[in-house]
Amino acid sequence: GENVEQHPSTLSVQEGDSAVIKCTYSDSASNYFPWYKQELGKRPQLIIDIRSNVGEKKDQRIAVTLNKTAKHFSLHITETQPEDSAVYFCAAPSIQGAQKLVFGQGTRLTINP
Amino acid sequence: GAGVSQSPSNKVTEKGKDVELRCDPISGHTALYWYRQRLGQGLEFLIYFQGNSAPDKSGLPSDRFSAERTGESVSTLTIQRTQQEDSAVYLCASSLNPTRETQYFGPGTRLLVL
User: Fold this and answer.
1) Comparing C-alpha atoms, which of A89, A110, A111 is closest to residue A38?
2) Fewer CB under 10 Å: which end of chain A, C or N?
3) How many whole angstroms separate alpha carbon B83 and alpha carbon B15?
4) How far away is chain B from the Cα of A12, in angstroms, using its nearest Cα?
């Protein structure tokens, strides 16, 4: 929705452990929730997305879960590797007024070897 | 096909000068967005185009910023009388549909105002 909150702002995990990043949104009509990964000095790139008609989606070590009742969605990365270190952004549509994606503030994920 | 391209990749300018940043979206993408990203910060929405019209200009920081899009393709972001606080990476993105489809980002233009 118009307001997307993302937590935590920084996250440090040991290589091989799991990482979870959570976002909440305010517009209950929102129906599309993408996650972007931005490596240092690079452009943001989509890594996974979910639509409101499903509760979970997986792609290898990455999964996203959606709780429409609570209006939150989460990114789960399992068996983390050093190349997972990056900033991750969630987003949700702003349905009110002009339609656009509203991005969360970002989470800087560091994988410690 | 080709992705989103932006030019120039880097721009150094003196305070008070005008700059123009260009974005070439993916062919057929009707939605186009401009974002600003300061060092270590998040994505700050500037303006959104649907076709050649801009339904949402709410993110433009001041009247020194303007943008246009022609032919439902190329867009230019113009910053007049640049200030040091304008220094940032300016990212352009395009998508088939504003709220239901992936936004594809360009490589950005890194602007430094001295």
Assistant:
1) A89
2) C
3) 5
4) 17
